[in-house]
Structure prediction request, 885 residues.
Amino acid sequence: MLAAVRSATVFGVEGRPVTVEVHVSTGLPAFQIVGLPDEACRESRDRVRAAVLCSELVWPSCRVTVNLAPSNQRKGGSGLDLAIAIGFLAAHGQVPVSQIEGLGFVGELGLDGSLRQVAGVAPMVAAMGDVRPVVPISNYREAWCVAGDGVRVARTLREVVDALNADAPWPQLPDGEFVDEEPPLPDLADVRGQAMARQGLEVAAAGGHHMLLVGPPGSGKTMLAQRIPGLLPLLEPDVSLQATMVHSAAGVRLPAGGMVQRAPFRAPHHSSSMVALVGGGSISLRPGEISLAHGGVLFLDELGEFAPSVLDGLRQPLEEGVIRLARARASAALPAKFLLVAATNPCPCGGGGPGDCQCDEAARLRYVRRLSGPLLDRFDLRVGVTRPAVEDLLASGGGEPTVGVAARVGAARQRALDRIGMVNANIPASHLDSLAPLHQAARELLRDQLERDQLTGRGYHRIRRVARTITDLQGGGELVLDEHVQMALSMRVRLSISSRERAA
Amino acid sequence: MSAEPLASNELPPEAYVASLAGFRNMNVHRLGALLRHHSPEEAWQVVLGRRPCSGLIAKVLVDSDVRKSWRRCAQERPPEAIWSQCLALGLQVLPYGHQRYPAGLLDDPFPPPVLFAKGNVGLLAGRRVGIVGTRNATAAGREVARSLGFGLGTAGVHVISGLARGIDGHAHRGVLAAEGEGRPIGIVASGHDVVYPREHRDLWEAAGNCGLLLSEAPPGVPPEPHRFPLRNRIVAALSEVIVVVESRERGGSLITASQAIERNVTVMAVPGSIGKRASAGTNALLCDGAAPVTGVDDVLTALSLQNTRSAVLPADLRARPRGEDIAVYRVLSAEPRTIEGVTLALGFSLVDAAMSLARLESAGWVAQADGWFECVGSPLR
Prediction:
């Protein structure tokens, strides 16, 4: 009268194995779930009962007790429905207990007995360890990423029961719809003019340099940012797996190929809350936008409109590549290694050339102050974007397409990886002299900048890293030339208003 | 600094004026009317309703709100406290008619009933030019303001301005950098202890210490918006010539100019490119007959300090641009551009344009802000 079924829940981006123990005994008819279930989990009583009855199975009048072990951890979500139903059926003898050995069950039940997809199947399957997972058919791709061909799928509870009773074979794995066809990414060929910004995108993608686009409304900042994922190479296998786990845990649709292989692009609106951005929630710690951007691009449009506390939340992940969330009962580290691309107007009215701005000084100052400080300091590139010239808009041919630029980016990234095993943006300051030695003229140029107080010590290191990337993009000579340093300086526009900023 | 020593039990009459000037609902007309008909001590009794009064003040005092607020102000701002504040700040309190009250304001249509001065009031007997302009100045405009201030200061002319951001501040920076006899005279809208804008604290102190800082407001009065046009009338009244460096189609500096015209003060303007918003106001002044300013010589000529334009140009110490840099400079002298704008105009590559602009910037021919480059300083000849 007792059965134990293996299942899992998700916490952060990690699965946690859960053993569902079901005991059926005589006594007053009742159905109880213990082991710290949350609301969604407790409601599975009603779903399971209806699903069992609708699947033409028997629900006896007896006492049913379900324990979710380990019973001192909170369990959330509806992913345990299937395991509870199978556990009940096994304990009541409608399914042989021996048949559920070596299987793990994940999925939500509909009242009619159908199986519905749940978020976080990939980490759950990984957490269940050495079992063959049984998942709803719509979760097949995620489970397949982790368990390969050992996955069992089903559309309804009845199909699972029939297979367990050997009345019918397991349903076919869906291979027909498993096509690797993704919509094409936006192409750089659509961008007219914008030579400086294009150069900025190329450098940002090649060196992993965080970029701030500064320009008036309508100058194409968003359009430019959307084209960065196309320039980035496909994700490394381990990053790809992490990104897949994050997407699965957050319940974001995975690409047709199963794994997240292209660099993700996330553009949260500026009204987003801190929790939406960095992740959180009391029971499952759902990954936030910065984790969904892991391996790809986080684009913050209208940077100055984000709440300052939200932006401050980005500082730790920018530094460490992970976000550590702690709650009273548990803590989790979620991956969050992303390329930060932000866009802002130079002032509230949008600005334009010198003397065009209609804002008074106080308004401009307030606007720029919201941006300044430690976050602004993390941007290696501050590229000015202007409205494209009329001739550029009317010209027939577009600019250089993504393919060509991506090839240069890939080659430059490879040079950097061969050199020290990381992108140039992460070169430690102590290694700059050996990895990015300066040509004599370049040294003079930087000395001049430092002497005229146009550059601080920190800015100096950033310029050298960016210059290293530019050298790599242009063929990768050993020495960094003065023209590379100058381009790096040109991609760090000074925001006119604040004199403190001027020196940064 | 103040000449009036505080008697043991008795306050000087200026103390009452200083206190009255800071009342809410008090204005130039009311304070003027009060002091025309009453001595300061009597005026103090009048606003408290302890003495009969007539004319304008009687009408004003009919309003119970005014009566109430003046009673409250009298408690909040007792003459003793205000007076000791003035003494602590080293202020001279100059009511209308005081022997050191600026002569230029005595026959003004709206003379300030009282002025608070720090520094050398005697400077107002020297030659004085007002330099005013927009707070949203271009780099070129700021440079013009600074060089005019420098040239006038070198020639021994005092520079009057409002200590605002932009043109005003740079005119004073110019005169402070000069080694001549010219001094900065700042006319401000708030009390002497309320520095506004805060980033001009250095100019504020420099004007008080080595020039003159004047305000119509007693200590503690914040920079309320309505005080700025009033401040502008003092700038206009005290200047022999007003030079507007840059101004938009509407703005405080045009108010100063029209008040200068009402007072028969010469108005001059610095011409600018007709497409430039920052020069729209000055070009309009030129259309209306203001004299153009192309250099400090024009201003000195208007003051009759000089009757020719100097033939010898001041030596330009900047390294002359060479080669393609000249072409880049020419393009920029027509209008400000970004790096991309330069590449489009000249067909340069991004790197060449960036290198050339960097050379020009480091030599001091162009300046950059928000990614835009514009020419600064005297033009390349």
Remarks:
- Confidence is low (pLDDT under 50) at residues 497-504 of chain A.
- Chain A has two domains: 2-164, 188-503.
- The radius of gyration of chain A is 28 Å.
- DSSP finds 23 helices and 18 strands in chain A.
